[in-house]
Amino acid sequence: MVVGTSDGVMGCCLPRIGAPAAKTDGSDSESSIGEQSRRSKRIDQMLAKEKRLIRKEVKLLLLGAGESGKSTFVKQMKIIHSQRHSLIDDMSDTNAVQEYKDIIYKNIIKGMQEYKDIIYKNIIKGMQVLIDARIKLDIPWGRPDSEIHAQHVFACDNRQTISQHVFTQYVRPIGLLWTDEGIRHAFERRIEFQLSDGVRYLFDNIDRIGGEDYLPTNQDILYSRKATKGVTEYSVTINKIPFRFVDVGGQRSQRQKWFQCFECVTSILFIVSSSEYDQVLLEDRHKNRLRESQNIFDTIVNNRCFQE
């Protein structure tokens, strides 16, 4: 073999006669092939496991009229069958633990703020409905000063986010109005107008809810309401079986989306509130809510999707 030196002189280097030839080491190649094989096997196992989970998953479509309790049912399932995240307990990296804690704490705070806003709005909106109903039903005030409190509460813009600071301005007026005989009388006649079922509980607990250190309890969340718009999915594991609940808005304007959700559904849960027997619809105050639920159920079971 001819090689070049640093001073430009060409030289020749020949292997010694009788010297053993260099052997090609195939261990690196074999190790690489083995690692690829193991990785491919792990991927196949993961795909097979995912396929089994998909086949095992129970997909439930929740249907029913508006305010029948579909979202409340899902909340109950999540509360009853919730499992604590054990990832942090299994981690040994202190920095990673702190990072995950920060993320979880931020998510908890964000979730609490969202629930607090919903609860605050439920209380203010509920009292505004009762104030308006008292006027329309021609019910007199129980106390003369209630009119001033009513004007203050009624002027609140419930469309904006309600912070804790803003809500504290309405705690005392709403508390006083809730004890007024005129508002109580209007509440007793709530079958004549639309009022959320949970407002009584929220009114009774307004002093606690209006506190500076208030954190929503499970009960507070269950009694609060936010109208479902569109399609929302929630995953819950019950007895090691994955359930996916598909929650669809129940208002008349949302029902055209129902039949788009029938594909790959294991079962349909049709939710009816037993307290609706003497209540009317928000969209039509001449329509009984229980009768509306019956009509919706008839429409669903007679749909051509179930005739195939």
From TrEMBL:
Record carries keyword Ribonucleoprotein: no
UniProt entry keywords in alphabetical sequence: GTP-binding, Magnesium, Metal-binding, Nucleotide-binding, Transducer
InterPro entries: Gprotein_alpha_su, GproteinA_insert, P-loop_NTPase
GO terms assigned for molecular function: D5 dopamine receptor binding; G-protein beta/gamma-subunit complex binding; GTP binding; GTPase activity; metal ion binding
Highest taxon of source: Eukaryota
Region named Disordered: 21-41
GO cellular component: brush border membrane; cytoplasm; heterotrimeric G-protein complex
Sites where the protein binds Mg(2+): 71, 228
One of the Pfam families matching this protein, by short name: G-alpha
GO biological process terms on file: adenylate cyclase-modulating G protein-coupled receptor signaling pathway; Rho protein signal transduction
Chain positions recorded as GTP binding sites: 67-72, 222-228, 247-251
UniProt keyword Transmembrane, yes or no: no
Record-linked CDD domains: G-alpha
Regions crossing the membrane: none
PANTHER family, sorted: GTP-BINDING PROTEIN ALPHA SUBUNIT, GUANINE NUCLEOTIDE-BINDING PROTEIN SUBUNIT ALPHA HOMOLOG
Protein name per UniProt: Uncharacterized protein
The organism of origin for this protein: Medioppia subpectinata
